[in-house]
Amino acid sequence: MHVLVIGAAGMLGRKLTSALIGEARLGGRKIEKLTLVDVVAPDRPDFGGALEMLAADLAEDGVAARLIAGRPDIVFHLAAIVSGEAEADFEKGYRINLDGTQALFEAIRLEGAGKAYCPRVVFTSSIAVFGAPFPDVIGDDHALTPLTSYGTQKAIGELLLADYSRRGFFDGVGVRLPTIVVRPGKPNKAASGFFSGILREPLTGQEAILPVADTVRHWFASPRAAVGFLLHAATMDTSGLGIRRSLNMPGVAATVAEEIGALQRAAGERAVSLIRRQPDPVIEKIVQGWPRAFDPERALAFGFSGDASFDAIVQIYIEDELGGVLPA
Amino acid sequence: MHVLVIGAAGMLGRKLTSALIGEARLGGRKIEKLTLVDVVAPDRPDFGGALEMLAADLAEDGVAARLIAGRPDIVFHLAAIVSGEAEADFEKGYRINLDGTQALFEAIRLEGAGKAYCPRVVFTSSIAVFGAPFPDVIGDDHALTPLTSYGTQKAIGELLLADYSRRGFFDGVGVRLPTIVVRPGKPNKAASGFFSGILREPLTGQEAILPVADTVRHWFASPRAAVGFLLHAATMDTSGLGIRRSLNMPGVAATVAEEIGALQRAAGERAVSLIRRQPDPVIEKIVQGWPRAFDPERALAFGFSGDASFDAIVQIYIEDELGGVLPA
C-alpha cells in the first residue's frame, strides 16, 4: 500500500514516519510506498520500499492534485500552522489550515471523479475546537466553540471531513489530539509550553518556569500515544462512525500538581526543586479557556487507547528521548 | 444609515425589505440608503431614500468587495443555495454557501484594514446545522452535526462568523432559523414542503399531500417571526454574546397532528378533509433526522421572541398572504 504523510517534518510527523517504517505494515498490508511532504523537506528516513520526499505548500495551486495523483491508500493530514502563529498571522493561518485542507479534500474528490478512488483520510484535529465555557468533563456531544482562529480552522476541517466522507469522496477520521507532553526539543513560546517544560527541563537538570497555579487541570497524551491514535485511525473499521467522524481522544486529565508528583516519582525532589514559580496573568487567562477533561466514550468504543497514567507519560519521555536513563 | 440585504429577492429577503421600508428606521436610526442584491435583480420597492439594486453572484471575484465598498452599517446575509440543491449540486452549494460567505467576510475585513470599519453582520443560519442523533429538546451547547452539505456550509459560516467577530473585523450575529411555515407561494419539492402545504393548500380549498405520520414533531416559525429575528439581530446589544455568535431561535414545536388541529380551528373540518395521507418512506426517513424541539434559552435571554402558538402562525398566513380572510 501507499501511505502519504502531509506534515512529515513536524514532531508528530517524524514519529509517525518512524512508526510506519518500524511496523512495515498497516492494517495487515505491507507498506510498499511512502510519500513524505512538508513545507521544508523532511529528513530522509531509512526505508526499504519506494520513498518520495517533497518540500511543498499544500495551499499552493496544483500541489494537492500532484500529491493525490499517486493515489495513496492512506492520507495522514498533519500539516498546520500552530495556534500561536495562526493567531498572529490571520491570513497565513486561514491559507494553510483552511484553504490547504480544502485543497486536499477537493483534490481527492476530483481524483475520484474519473476512476473510483476512496482513500482513508486521517485528519489531526485538536481539543482547541473547544472553548470555555464548558463543563468540567466534556462529553462527545458538546458544541464546538473554538476560542482561536486555529481552533476555528480545525473545527471547519472536521465539518468538511464529515461531509466529504458522507458523500463517499473519502473515508475520513478526525483525531482530536490532547495537548502533547512531554514535547521533546527546546522550550518554545507556545502558551501551553510550560506543561512540557516543567518536566522536560528538570529531568535533565535544567530550571523551568511555571506560570500558572498548581491546581490548573488539563488533558494530555504522550507523543507515543498520539502516534498510536493516528495509526488506529488509519486502520479502524469506520462503518459505525456515521456522520460523526471526529473523536475526542482518550487522554490523561492531570493537574499541574499531579504532573509535579509524577516528576518527583521519576526523578526525585531535586528535579522538582528546579521548577520556579513565576505567575503570568496572561498565560493564566489563556489556560482558563482550555478544556480540563473529557469523557471520550466514543473513541474508547472504537478501540482507541491512550496513556495509562501521567507517570507512564513521563516514563515514555525518558525511554523515547533520553535513552531510558536520566542524566546523572 | 446604510443597510445592505444580500439575497433580497428570496421570500425572506422580500419580507425583510418590506419591513425595513415600513419601519423606515433601524435601532433608532433612519435608513438613508438601501442596497438590495440577489442573483436575479429583486423587484424595485417603493422607498424614499437612496436605493441601489444589483443582480450579482456573491461568489464571483470582486462582487463582495464592490458591495462592501459602500460601507453599509448593517449587512443582512440571506443568500444561499437551498438544502436540496446544495445536495444535488455539490460544487454549486460550496461555491455559493461557503465561498460566497467567505468572500463577503473577507471583503469586510479588507475594507476595514485601511480605515476602521466594523458593521453589524446578520447571518441566516438554520436548524439544519443539527442532525440526529440528538435529544428530544436540543440545548444551546449541543454539537453541530449537520446531515447535509447545506447544513455543513451553514455550520462553517457560523464558525467563520464567530472568529471574524472575535477578531473585531465585524460584529456578527447568526440566526438559526426554524423551518418557516406557512411558506407562501406554490408547492415546491423540498422535503419539508408538506409542513406548509398541508396548511396553505387546504386554506384555499386545494388538496394537499401528507407524506409522514401525524406524530412527526418539528420546530417552526412564521415568516413574520423570522423577519422579527433578523431585525432584532441587527439592532441588539451584542456585548454579552462572547464568542457564541449563533443562536437557536425561539420557534414553536408542533406535531403534524397539532398543525392539523390549528388548521381545523382556523378553517374547519372541510379544510382538514383536503389533506390526503400518502406515506412516503423517503421523506419519512429524511424527516427522522431533523430536530424536533429546542430550548432556546440564550436567544430568549438576548430578547428574541417568536410566535405565540401554532394557531398564531396560521393566523399570520391568513393576515399576510390572504388579506385577512379565507376564500369562501
UniProtKB/TrEMBL annotation, chains A, B:
Instruction: Indicate the segments forming the NAD-dependent epimerase/dehydratase domain, all copies.
Output: 3-209
- Keyword Cytoplasm in the entry? The reply is no
Superkingdom field: Bacteria
Q: Give the signal peptide range.
A: none
- The keyword Nucleus is assigned to this record: no
Q: Which UniProt keywords apply?
A: Carbohydrate metabolism, NADP
Q: What is this protein called?
A: SDR family oxidoreductase
Organism whose genome encodes this protein: Devosia salina
Q: What taxonomic classification does the UniProt entry list for its organism?
A: Bacteria, Pseudomonadati, Pseudomonadota, Alphaproteobacteria, Hyphomicrobiales
